[in-house]
Fold:
Amino acid sequence: MLRKLFVVFLLAGLVTLAGAKQRKPLTVVPSVDLSRYAGKWYEIARLPNRFQRNCVGEVTAEYTLVANHQIKVINECRRQNGQRDRAEGQARLANKNGPNSQLEVRFAPAWLSWLPAVWGDYWIIALADDYSYAVVGTPDRQYLWVLARTPNLAEAIYHKLLQQTATQGFAVAQLVKTRQSN
Structure:
């Protein structure tokens, strides 16, 4: 019995490893003008995640450039009871020698910022030339957000972004559209 259990776990591990090796690296936009990227963004859709499970609508993110490649982040959403949730954090370059479209964010207290585990990937994988929409994801394909400068995004653009992100390995069928008030 133990031998069978060991073989099952071994095979599951090998399948997982094989799948991870087959996945291509996440392609990001080559560069971002962070001063143009700053400002208010409306969440159009997202992959479900634990830290937004109480958000039922009106999800926004406000980015403010505060220092050399440092960004203040304020995320807000409306809860079922009508109250607003607010999370304040910081974003920074993930790699000083990498593209500035690869950021990492932290919402934990600043005194914990020395811990690598409090930083999460925030990679910009699509960006309109006029900075009217963006798609942000993580290299493990577990997190994905479609953002726009306005509460609504044209369906044609939205579907184009879904196709682009699907080719990068994201489970776009699981995306949840965000309710925004106009």
The CA atoms of residues 17 and 56 lie 36 Å apart. Residues 1-21 have pLDDT under 50 and may be disordered. The longest helix spans residues 2-22.
